[in-house]
Design goal:
alpha+beta, SMI1/KNR4-like, 6-stranded antiparallel sheet, two-stranded antiparallel ribbon
């Protein structure tokens, strides 16, 4: 079992975590096609592997986007987990960072994949400068979530 799987299992026990069902191959294919149709970069394989486990995630201020907008209907706040296509379209319109695929965010950070360097990044929200890079999505995910779980990285 990977570290990401272990963390997802832990978060499944937290009633405050929004962990949607896994994305189907059709969900992923449609998301990829919608990104391409908008002249945006496709999702990297590491994130696709994550989506096949859970179709996005929201917990303790951390969001990793899904293939579709997901609304937590039984929650009084009706939290909405945003979809990758609309968030990347908005991100690209705002910042014109064509080489980056937006995967999620938390507090003062964006989480992206840099097409040019083939690295996953934590970007500072204001400057959009990378303050940490990772070779795999699992490394980015574990770094992000473990800190909030009080676990050592």
């Amino acid at each position: 079992m990977s570290k990401t799987d272990e963390i997802i299992n832990m978060l499944n026990e937290d009633s405050g975590a929004m962990i949607p069902r896994s994305a189907s191959d059709e969900d992923i294919a449609q998301c990829q096609q919608d990104l391409v149709d908008l002249s945006l970069e496709p999702l990297p394989q590491g994130y696709i592997d994550f989506l096949k486990k859970v179709n996005g995630l929201a917990w303790n201020g951390i969001e990793f986007y899904s293939t579709d907008q997901i609304v937590e209907a039984d929650n009084p706040t009706s939290f909405r987990l945003m979809d990758l296509v609309s968030m990347n379209d908005e991100f690209n319109d705002l910042y014109e960072l064509d080489e980056k695929v937006l995967l999620g965010r938390a507090d003062e950070d964006y989480y992206t994949y840099n097409i040019e360097t083939e690295k996953y990044e934590a970007l500072e929200l204001e400057s959009r400068e990378a303050w940490e890079e990772f070779d795999t999505f699992d490394e980015l995910f574990c770094f992000t979530v473990k800190g909030r779980l009080g676990m050592n990285n």
